[in-house]
User: Fold these one by one.
Assistant:
Number 1:
Amino acid sequence: MRRPILLFGITLCSVLAWGADWLTDGNGPTRNGWQKDEKILSKTNVKDLKVLWKLKLPNEPREMHSLFAPLIVEKVNTSAGPKEMAFVAGASDNIFAIDVKEGKVVWQKHFEYPEPARRGRATDPLCPAGLTATPIVGPPDGSGNRPMYVMSGDGKLHTLALSNGEELAQPYQFSHPYGKSYSLNLWDGVLFTTTAQGCAGNPNQIWAVRVNDPQHKVMVFNPKSGGLWGRSGAAIDSNGVAWAPTGDGRYDAATQTYGNGLIGAKVVDGELKLQDYFEPRNWAWLQSRDLDMQVTPSIFKWKGRELMVVGSKECRMYLLDVTNAGGDDHQTPLDRTPLMCNEEVNFMSAGIWGSMATWEDAQGTRWVLTPFWGPVHPDFKVPITNGPVIHGAVVALKVEEKNGKPVLTPAWISRNMDQAEPPVIANGVIFAYGSGENTDQAYASRGLMDNSPERIHDSTHAVLYALDAMTGKELFNSGKQITSFVHFGALSVANGRVYLGTFDSTLYSFGLPGK
Amino acid sequence: MSEKFLSTAVLILMCGGPALAQGRGGGAWATIGGDTQRTGWVRADPQISKDNIGKGVVQFLWKVKLENTPRQLESLTQPAVIGRIISYRGFKDVMFVSGASDRVWSIDHPIGKVFWEAKLPYAATYPQQMGGTPACPGGLTSNVAVAGAGNPFGPPTPPAPPAGATPPAPGAAPAPGATPPPAAADAGRGGRGGRGPGDPAGGRGPGGPRLPAAVYALSSDGLIHTLNQHTGDDFAPGFKFIRPNALARGLAVVDNIAYVATTGNCGGAPNGIWAMDLNPTVSVKELSTVKWLSGNAGIEGAAAFTFGAPGTIYAATGNGPHDPANGEFGKAVVALDQKTLKLKEWFTPAGEATFRTAPVFFNFKEKDYLAVADAQGRIYILDAAAPGGSDHKTPLFVSQPIAPVTAGKGIHQALSTWQDSDGTRWILAPFAGALSAEAKTGGIAAFKLVEEGGKLSLQHGWTSRDLTAPAAPVIVNGAIFALSTGENTAVGVEQRAARSTPAVLYALDGATGKEIWSSGRTIAGFSHSGGLAAGQSKVFVTTYDGNLYAFGYLLNRD
């Protein structure tokens, strides 16, 4: 009799401890975008998703940037007892902590600092002056309390208490003021970020600091060319190597110049050192057409190996082994898809943007997902389609073994989405959204004129979609419920809720009423 | 016309033209002869050199058939080649070429796809000349041009940073408010993500909007068109520049002033050189036009005129009386004021001499010179400051005929010039007719300019392989690209197409003339006046049958 009681106890504990978190952009160092612990949302019920609440937050957008990926902590010990809370950063140096059940702000914090000496050009969407890196929630201490690391627009790193926003440590300089840092990542006590676009004179590189280093020594690795603008920053493999795409630039191995590729750097002996890199063979073509390698990779385990997928505006995916990315010549991926989109070689409104996602189904099949913008390439063949794709879609591929090596096999392509953004996965459901953003940067009569006010004016609104992870079939769409667009935001999913922040600083929580 | 359109046009004319100041070699080919000095020399190229051509770096890239109806022998003009533009249809590396049937095309040159095509309407009240004659073919006859540099000794183009230069110092983050660290070395052009603080001007730097620049074309109705490089649309309605149906040569735009020559007295247009101020502050462009007329003698050479010493342009005239008092300037090299086109200096050789090429301008040991060829097969070296000396008759040097000249043969099209890494100045002459035992039907003769005892002379360097009616050669990084045009000049125009042979492009060693590479049988037709251009690691050939060919470095797209 004792065994059944024990089993019951274990089961009960499991049920009580089923809560899920979403602690980083992309939900973890590998940026897989997979919520493994979702138990509420499912294929059968997401058709009933509703806006549970929406919060207009007092955050002023900076250029096109507004709210970044919400972080979800299922259990935060507050003075009013444990709460499930969302933490969302706003571009004008704000952090908001929200009670997700009530849909109310519990606390908010605004970072003040002297105006930096340099800033980006006004109306330039590339260089907003303010906070740009999605924060990250660190591991719990002995009391179960987690810190949150936040980089304010002046480049200082703050360590905040989740319960009330208090500074747990003296802030210190991590990156450059108004330097446009990308989402923070954390591995074994080392915090990473990446920078791009040279905003306010900032070098484009990977940055790292040990969070427990009293000297706050900042370590960097600079690829000498390009900009590291993977939307979700760097992804980190199980060896602590931070992988970041290097955007548009030159490759020249002889001079250790690694633009238009993917670099992996690791902290070794107190320095951030290059471990490996991958450069597409046609990198010069990519550079000539501004088809940057600018997508944060997703890293995953597959049959005892650790692999990653990455892509670019050219609109193809690469499959790489983190222990030997690109092979001996650094230019030979395990597999490479055909062009999935961007037949017209468009640098601004087509191709893969943002980040990727990956998950494993109950049968052990490894899936990888990518969003893309623009029309599907006419030569891209997918077994399952879900209607014509004009403005973007999500593509799902399986990692399969062929002739003894892993390959990417297209499985389905979603319905059309207006500028499809990085998806996330929860319990067999793919959540994705079309951002509704106007991404035009050049005009027939005026040439290149990337201008925030104009793009904001011409943007529409985001639409959230729920798709069947096996087929891409649409299970839900939010229609016109979201009234603003999204630029460089991201989805989060935990405990029956899907979160998305929009340009007008509204945070939406979708879920199932009563659950 | 809307106010918005006008203001956009003004903005373009103010900013668009100078934005692409070209003409000093590099990777651009701004006008006929490559630059406004008409050197034919692409000074630097990141991919092509005489040392690697033989290793397969130069190959056939593509050909494009352009729908153009030739007029007599006039078909496609010599292309203009520029680098990167950021257009509403993406990043493009473009070139422009015009056709006799009043067409202009922009081609994305790494991949050989037409980016846009502009059809220039005939808008003159005077009827369009449809048939034409070999001497006056009608139609669009001048090359297209992008803005060029008039002063060859203006501010030098900043060199691209060497690969890997100036890396940001790794280490600690900058202190708040500290001077930003040095920029990432990034020679990459463009790049939203690649843009670093040191990104060169070609990139999408933080300087705000980058307006489309212009490409200029002169239609058969005599209107000059300022076309948006991104679309082919006119920024503003065309301005009347010269008479309709003229035979126009050498269009160039320098400091927002357009220049062109008319020759052959075609369409009633007197022989001469014309300049029109395109600056937006000039409200009536037609009234800004100035001209210099040569009289009965035509303006010679494919390029027609040359920009040289600051404020001066040069031209050479053909057969005709020389009687300046009566407006006759035949058999002369003239130096004109660049703004007023008033005569400043001239050279009239003693004895019989009829010039066949435009002067080419160059610097040698810190002095400026001209080289020009006559119909007798001689090459003259002139002081650019005083082409004929104090008596207007004395060249610094004149060669013997480089080969015997028979009827319809001799040095033609244009001379080319370049300077090798040792400082040797080379003059290259394309010659139709027997040039040597090897070059039986024609070839390129290369000469070194030497100075001994304060006197200049030309020393024979090498003679190329046999070439049929060769075009003016182009020079890329020490390699000479020579086009055997295949044109059979011994037969009449009506038989020319049938009895000419396909053109062949050759790469020669600039020091020895030795053949390094040839296009073999790739080119199917012959080439007439359009000929040869280079830039952006490619060499382009136009043929009479409306094809544009590209050879050069293959950018791996896949």
Number 2:
Amino acid sequence: MNRKTVLLGATGFLLIGLTAFYLWYERKIEPKRETVTTPHFETSTPEDGVVLAGVPLNVTLDFNLDLVSGSSILIMQEGIDYGSSSTEIDENKLSMRRRLVSNAPNGNYTIKYRACWINNNCANGQYFFSIDRSLADSFTDYRSQDEVVIDMRTLAFLPEKMRIARGTKVTWKNSDTVNHYVNTDAHPSHTYHLNQNSRELPPGAEYTVVFDERGIYPYHCSAHASTMIGSLLVE
Amino acid sequence: MQKLILSVITVFVVIATVIAFSSSQNIKDTNQPTPIPDDDSVTVDTTIKETPEVVFATPKKAAHFVKSSPEHGTTVIAAPQQVQISFNFDLGVNSNIAVTRDGKDYSTGNTIVSSDRLVLSKGLQSDVPNGLYTVSYTACWPDGSCHDGSFQFAVNR
């Protein structure tokens, strides 16, 4: 056999082998980033594709049909599950949630979930979000204060992004001329942080919540859900 | 020497190919407390059989749904005077209920939002015929956005 032919063939096989190895490595470390939505899915917190300044309390998924046992959530980054508890189905049976470890690292996360309904019909879904703690610098720093006030004025939460310490008492005050709400994401399910859900707040009304757990808390006004949004970063 | 080099390269290529092939099989994540089966097939049974005579469709619940009267999947011996749906969050204007059978709406009057804004209700004709009724509702929120839901009940005198 001609020497050049042998070397050429060997080089070709070597390239094929290296390519195959590379593809295997990529699939193992970085799963295909394709959002898959199951039937009956409505909303999620965190949202698909969002980049957060801190670790979310939990991953909450909302549906329009009662969930049953067998439903589950994985919170994956580079092959590690950063969920800190088992998956729980809410009392209303329309939402399921799973908490995250509070020191989950920065990076890209894949949420893989399995939703099951009556007659053991189940479906798998997935979506993605990221954590980037450098974004915390854009939050107004109130960590030295035990009690803070967020003003609801000109159809906005002021300040919109607030950084506070664990145990801080937060009071929202409606200084506007219209009614407002303080509701945890997502709209309209309001399931992410169930202790942060007000009813209608007329002008002059106040609403208070104490935040005891570290994490990020996205919220909105249900009367102006598309524009009046806020976020609390508890550290 | 040439044969030795060629043999080594061939072995490497075979190993790499086998590894790449295995990556196309199921990849199980480590540290997985609640494994999710890889079965991506979706089989949604759209019927809930309560009695052999009536087949109820899968209900759809809007956010904040608490309960309804009649309840989904029930068979009543007399037509209810009204249909009521309870929520646990403020309902907005334009919330609506329709009660249909074979495409005809048997509800009467306007949809009423309770004073505490947590209950929708609508009257029903008293002489509705036996059969399967679909309650289709639209729950609207303070920002004007709305989400629909539905459930079914049957009348069998």
